[in-house]
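Hey L., structure's done. Input below.
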Amino acid sequence: MNKETKDFLMGYCKSNGYEASEQGIKEALRDRYVIYSETLGTYPRWKGGFWVVAVNEKLIRFNWTIGDFSAEEMDWEFDIDSVCEVEKKAKAVTVYEKIK
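Output:
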């Protein structure tokens, strides 16, 4: 995570009742409404990918994992370096559908 994003999120944490730490950032991000998610890998008992949440005027992306067990039970730790600011982009997708 770059310094600008970290400073922004630390300020958000301080003014919204979260601890001003990496743990506080993790909790604050997980408490936000997910506006976009993408699965990057599916495994027998869990999936990994990223979420995008809105924090005030910024869109923040971070890696996540979800499955039958908690992240901690799977020895997965929150990757603070995965946190970054993103912007919304529209992309065109072509699909081919059966006609007969």
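Strands lie at 34-43, 46-55, 58-67, 84-86. Residues 3-86 form one domain.

-- N.
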